[in-house]
Design brief:
Order of helices and strands of chain B: HHHHHHHHHHHHHHHHHHHEEEEEEEEEEH
Strand order of the largest sheet of chain A: 5-4-3-6-7
CATH topology of chain A: Glutaredoxin
Order of helices and strands of chain A: HEEEHEHEHEEH
Largest interface: A-B, 24 and 33 residues
Helix content of chain A: 40-55%
Number of strands of chain A: 7
Oligomer: heterodimer
Strand content of chain B: 5-15%
Largest sheet of chain A: 5 strands, mixed
CATH architecture of chain A: 3-Layer(aba) Sandwich
Shape of chain A: elongated
Strand content of chain A: 15-25%
Number of domains of chain A: 1
CATH class of chain A: Alpha Beta
Radius of gyration of chain B: 27 Å
Chain lengths: 180, 661
């Protein structure tokens, strides 16, 4: 009897495997997705000065409290940042959500020229010259955009340039949910 | 037009496979000789049809017929001819066709060489083989048709991924597939035996050469893949525990176990149920490998264009093939009569230990490979890396090697371990010396590495001692020893070569992992750097042009204590059609170590990022694998002779007292 049970073991193991395979084939699953370690944690402590040459104040942890907002990491040397910039200009014009930024490993003069050319959608910009703050936030590269809730907690990390479709399909619903 | 012939031949092959998969099977059940006789010509016809189809596709690649979607997506008119031909299997559809071609080739080979098989067994084996063909032919025709036309016809193709534009592509996938697919024969034999309800020494004798053939090609295929990664990726490593590497490694481990357990079935009529299970599992792991590579289930560097629909199709095939055979196994295995008894300390006991360690090692690799998928199902993101795999390979690999040295000294049935170890005194002494030398040369090296080197020496000397023991070297006059050596069966030499190959490979693996030296820095022409005692002078960088790429070639002159050793010319290539850079490492081998240089990006101020590695004993790794393959070939040449006269010894199966296994 027990021998029969043992002989059934291989087929039982295979059945479990098939269930996992079927689950793994679900079309909306992306095995290369890496979730952020920072999501659902309070934003890290930081206090960044303003970008030299800009009229806009710097950014520190305390500034993130009180309202739902987007924190965008950008740099003038980053080509995809140029791609996503019009999306943020559009957002700032509509005024749906507060928008702040961290200028990542950039030369202040370059950042000033870049914003002068493309426009400035941000109400505050911190200058992260050494990338220290970026590391604390878990930035893997620029551009990246975080959603912060009204208690100053990170709720979402968007990696890569923000497209209109990203904003409409993922970011906006989340912001509206957090605002309630 | 030729493409349509290819397509049509593939459809005909499916029809023939359906006939071959049903008629002989029914004929064997009902004792109709003429139905069973369909199997052999059908298998040969199926092969010819698939071959026609394959050649038609190859012709489309050679003449750059971009009206075929597959050619347009994976080829380019400026590509060198070698890569036009090898590009046939550098993509999903074409490689699937190669897979089927090899499957059909094995079927035809069994039909051709299987003249001495009992008619019912032959009919069933060829039927099972054909049913596998039916599955994959249908898969190819329905989801991955390589003969699909496109309109409008593009002016030129999108070129082959530059990483694949390497002579490695000519050999690595075909050899790997011969290995993978070759295990289908052992699988078909196992399923046929379960249907017949009979496994005996004769069965094992027929299965062994096919298993050996598959095993030696898989060994060569994996080694070539590893070598290719080593020189093409430019990371200086030869094994990355990537899921796709793992899925080729698992059938190898299982196949190695099968190779050894089949010996026990042949010689002692024991371990039958286990051997049948191994045969099923080995091919199942090959199938699961195919599924994982082509479904995008796990992230891997080997990205075929992934498509969940295709994944689902293969999964259904897996359920039928693996699920069906395992159900058959659960139902029919109890009916198999167990054979010869043996004591725990015996040749059989040693082979059981070998099988247990290999099976557990396969299990660990399997768990490590699948863990990310299971963890993700429970909402964890997990990645299992080299530390896990390296730890477990050491835990199971080191005892395996230690035991591998002793096993061949044990006689069948009952053995005296002390006596066997007594005959290993000289080997033990030499091993101890080798361990001391390693320790002296590499002071401060990791303990595990010294253990690894010592065990490699142990296996090497013990295997030589086993040969010396057989020919009674130094105990009888040299001429008598020589005549004994000449009369040893080739299978014995096969074992000696393969085990020595393993020892050499283990030394290479251990040393290159533990004592690799590496230097990454920005260098300007004229600067020098010292790595592991060798002096590398960075001479210059030149711009070059290849047939379908641009290249920047760096030049290093390497000296050792002022004496010139080599000139290394690593390249960084850019393929404009695919907009993709590749690195071409420059490697100089001294036989003891590899000097390995890679050139990276320019810093724009006259400097270049360069990486230089000193890879001790890596050449031994390839030499070891080559010895294993040679061992397999030598043993195979012996097998074939015996298979030619299978009834020389009447199978003792029926007469052996049946109690337990």
């Amino acid at each position: 009897m027990s021998k029969r049970v043992i002989l059934l073991l291989p087929i039982a193991v295979f059945a479990v495997l098939v269930v996992a395979f079927v689950w793994g084939l679900a079309p909306d699953r992306d095995p290369s997705r890496v979730p952020s370690a920072m999501v659902d944690k309070p934003a890290p402590d930081f206090d960044l000065p303003a970008v030299t040459g800009l009229e806009i104040p710097g950014l520190k942890t305390a500034d993130l409290n009180g309202d739902v907002m987007l924190v965008n990491f950008f740099a003038s040397w980053c080509v995809p940042c140029r791609v996503e910039h019009p999306v943020f200009m559009d957002l700032a014009a509509k005024g749906d959500v507060k928008l702040v930024a961290i200028n990542y490993r950039d030369k202040p003069a370059d950042a000033v020229a870049w914003l002068a050319e493309l426009g400035n959608p941000y109400s505050r910009i911190g200058a992260d010259l050494t990338a220290r703050t970026g590391i604390d936030w878990g930035v893997s590269g620029v551009p990246e955009t975080y959603i912060i809730d009204s208690e100053g907690r990170i709720r979402y990390q968007h990696i890569g340039p923000m497209q209109v479709s990203d904003y409409e399909e993922t970011i906006r619903p989340l912001i509206e949910e957090l605002k309630q | 037009m030729i493409a349509e012939i290819g397509h049509f031949a593939l459809i005909l092959a499916l029809v023939v496979a359906i006939v071959q998969g049903t008629l002989p099977m029914i004929g064997a059940a009902q004792g109709r000789a003429n139905w069973m006789a369909v199997a052999r010509p059908a298998a040969q016809l199926q092969f010819l049809l698939v071959l026609t189809s394959f050649l038609a596709l190859m012709q489309a690649y050679i003449i750059s017929d971009f009206s075929l979607a597959n050619v347009a997506q994976n080829s380019h008119s400026a590509k060198p001819m070698l890569y036009k031909v090898t590009g046939v299997w550098g993509n999903h559809e074409g490689s699937m066709l190669l897979w089927i071609l090899i499957l059909a080739l094995f079927g035809a080979a069994v039909a051709g060489f299987g003249g001495n098989l009992p008619p019912t067994l032959r009919a069933r084996v060829l039927s099972v083989q054909a049913l596998i063909s039916v599955g994959f032919l249908a898969f190819s025709l329905l989801t991955s048709n390589p003969f699909e036309r496109i309109f409008p016809v593009p002016l030129d193709g999108r070129d082959l991924n530059p990483l694949l534009q390497d002579p490695g592509l000519a050999f690595h996938p075909p050899m790997l597939y011969v290995g993978y697919v070759g295990f289908s024969i052992a699988f078909a034999f196992a399923v046929a035996a379960l249907i017949e309800g009979r496994v005996d020494a004769a069965w094992a004798r027929w299965v062994r050469p096919w298993t050996l053939l598959a095993w030696l090609f898989l060994t060569a295929g994996i080694a070539l893949g590893s070598w290719w990664a080593y020189y093409e990726l430019g990371w200086g490593g030869w094994w990355f525990w990537d899921p796709v590497e793992n899925v080729s490694f698992m059938p190898w481990l299982m196949g190695t176990a099968l190779l050894h357990s089949a010996i026990v079935v042949e010689k002692r009529d024991a371990l039958k149920i286990w051997t049948i299970l191994l045969a099923i599992l080995t091919f199942s792991l090959s199938l699961i490998g195919t599924f994982i590579v082509r479904s995008g289930l796990l992230t891997s560097v080997h990205a075929f264009a992934t498509d969940p629909e295709r994944g689902l199709f293969i999964l259904v095939l897996l359920c039928i093939a693996i699920g069906g055979s395992l159900v058959l196994f659960a139902l029919r295995a109890p009916a198999l009569k167990a054979g010869g008894l043996f004591a725990p300390i015996s040749r059989e006991g040693g082979l059981v230990l070998n099988n247990l360690l290999l099976a557990v090692a396969t299990g660990t690799v399997f768990i490590g490979t699948m863990a990310p998928l299971f963890a993700e199902a429970f909402d964890y993101k997990l990645s299992v890396g080299a530390p896990y795999f390296n730890l477990f390979s050491a835990i199971f690999g080191l005892p395996l090697i230690a035991a591998m040295a002793v096993g061949p000294f044990l006689p069948w049935k009952r053995a005296d371990l002390a006596g066997a170890l007594g005959r290993l005194k000289v080997a033990a002494g030499l091993t101890f010396a080798a361990g001391l030398v390693t320790w002296y040369l590499q002071q401060g090296g990791p303990v595990l590495a010294i253990v690894g080197m010592t065990l490699a020496a142990w296996l090497f000397f013990a295997t030589l001692a086993e040969w010396a023991d057989r020919v009674q070297l130094f105990r009888i006059p040299p001429a008598a020893s020589l005549s004994r050596a000449l009369r040893l069966p080739r299978a014995a030499y096969g074992m000696t070569f393969a085990h020595i190959g393993m020892a050499v490979a283990v030394a290479g693996m251990t040393a290159s992992s533990a004592w690799k030296a590496e230097e990454v820095r920005v260098m300007r022409p004229g600067e020098t750097v010292e790595v592991a005692g060798y002096n590398y002078r960075f001479e210059e960088v030149r711009e070059m042009r290849g047939p379908n790429y641009f290249s920047e070639m760096g030049r290093f002159t390497v000296t050792l204590e002022g004496q010139p050793v080599a000139e290394l010319t690593p390249e960084k290539r850019f393929y404009p059609v695919q907009r993709m850079p590749t690195t071409e490492a420059a490697i100089h081998t001294t036989g003891i170590s590899d000097l390995y240089a890679v050139i990276g990006d320019s810093d724009g101020q006259g400097g270049w990022t360069v990486r230089i590695y000193h890879e001790p004993l890596v050449p031994w790794l390839w030499a070891g694998c080559l010895l294993m393959v040679i061992g397999g070939l030598v043993s195979l040449s012996d097998r074939r002779l015996r298979v030619g006269a299978p009834r020389r010894r009447a199978a003792p199966a029926a007469s052996a007292p049946a109690t337990a296994s």
